[in-house]
Specification:
The protein is an alpha/beta fold and 415 residues long. It is built from 9 helices and 12 strands. The N and C termini lie far apart (67 Å).
Length: 415
């Protein structure tokens, strides 16, 4: 018996070891209702973080001259020395600009502590199908992806936040089979569901599958059905399935709508980039939400609205798109969407995204003093401005006294 236990412990890689630290004594998120979650990319790496590739999702920040693929620069004021990685970018005063790595546990713990401080209930941890490979698990992408999930699990438990896996994926045969193998090792080896911080909804642990029905995503109806059936089995968690879909999902007449009706509990259409100001947002929601909500009511589904603070990907797109493509309007763009969610009678929201500086949708702490280059800032608002706005938005959806926290703010900050 002892030999068998030793053998099992040897076979489990460090990035898949079950969590053994403290966990809340109650289920943190029993339902998405009444809660506000954020998407957590967790895909940033840096030279010196212990992985081979060096800087990932930052761009050529170590080149000379340096280049980057992010439009916002994180505020690293509160980070420890071991969490900061130097780049060849310089601030106006000549000082070195640093970045972080999502593989560093202390940094992820810090991010979840911010969620706790600003009443964000938890995070959907992004898990990209193209980076996981259970059949060949020794690659850096697979190990990085698992390390980040492990970091998020510990951070969620320590901060009393919820977390859940969100697969960004295709739905062809090969990818569905890869996801089933991956989920099996997360449940069987990593024991991902054996913590009170894993999000639940409608009686089961939530697994989000983003990309269902998009034109640019592969789709095999039979393979998708097998994946959904797999996730519903008790030995795999009897999961609550959430699908990230395009806005026209309700017009489908093929197997995709049949699969939604049969297996999906939470429908979450993607809104990022679909409108560019509060007026357009109102028209967009007026076009889709009444019919979507009526469908969900009739079919017994929950509707999960997506809100976002702005959008910019100039550096990622090599300057072929305008900087600050969807302006933040000093937070009023995001706030207007929270108000519309409330107007339509919904009490939960998914904020895209917590740490997405690549496409300029981040709500975590971003500096107003980026290095020399083309970057979007928080327009003089505090670096925690969008955490504050999200906190107020959560209060609004919960029926508590809430208001936009920066009314009357001046171009230089303050009120």
């Amino acid at each position: 018996m002892l030999a068998a236990l030793i053998s099992i412990s040897i076979q489990i890689r460090p990035d898949l070891v079950p969590y053994a630290g403290p966990t809340p004594d109650h289920r943190v998120v029993e339902s998405l209702h009444g809660n506000v979650m954020a998407g957590y990319q967790g895909w940033f790496m840096a030279k010196g973080d212990g992985f081979e590739p060096g800087f990932v999702h930052w761009g050529g920040v170590d080149r000379e001259p340096p280049t980057c693929t992010v439009d916002m620069w994180p505020d690293l004021t509160e980070y420890g020395a071991a969490e900061k990685f130097p780049t060849n970018f310089r601030h106006k005063d000549g000082s070195t600009a640093h970045v972080f790595s999502s593989t560093v546990k202390e940094t992820v713990v810090r991010h979840f502590d911010w969620m706790r401080q600003y009443d964000i209930d938890g995070a959907f941890v992004q898990r990209f199908a193209v980076t996981i490979n259970p059949d060949q698990p020794n690659g850096w992408q697979d190990q990085r992806t698992n390390r980040v999930l492990s970091n998020c699990r510990e951070a969620a438990n320590r901060s009393g936040r919820g977390f859940a896996v969100m697969y960004d994926t295709d739905f062809d045969r090969a990818t569905c089979e890869r996801l089933m193998k991956d989920w099996s090792r997360l449940v069987g080896q990593m024991k991902i569901l054996e913590t009170n911080s894993y999000m639940h909804h409608a009686g089961g642990p939530v697994v989000s599958l983003w990309g269902f029905g998009f034109d640019h995503r592969k789709f095999d109806a039979k393979a998708s059905r097998e994946l959904f059936q797999f996730l519903k089995k008790p030995e795999n968690g009897a999961c609550t399935i959430m699908l990230g879909v395009p806005n026209d999902w309700r017009s489908w007449t093929d197997e995709r709508i049949d699969l939604i009706k049969e297996f999906c509990t939470v429908v979450s259409p993607w809104n990022v980039g679909r409108y560019g100001n509060p007026e357009q947002a109102a028209k967009h929601f007026e076009r889709f939400w009444p019919g979507d909500l009526e469908f969900c009511k009739e079919e017994g589904k929950d509707y999960y609205p997506v809100v976002f603070p702005g959008f910019s990907w100039t550096n990622l797109r090599k300057f072929t798109t305008p900087l600050n493509q969807i302006p933040r309007m000093k937070g009023k763009f995001l706030w207007s969407q929270f108000e519309l969610v409330k107007k339509y009678g919904m009490d939960m929201a998914y904020v895209a995204m917590f740490d997405e500086v690549d496409e300029g949708t981040a709500i975590f702490k971003v500096t107003n003093d980026p290095p020399v280059g083309q970057f979007v800032t928080y327009e003089g608002l505090p670096s925690d401005a969008y955490l504050q706005i999200t906190q107020s938005g959560r209060n609004l959806l919960k029926g508590r006294p809430a208001q936009f926290p920066f009314e009357g703010s001046s171009p230089n900050g303050g009120s």
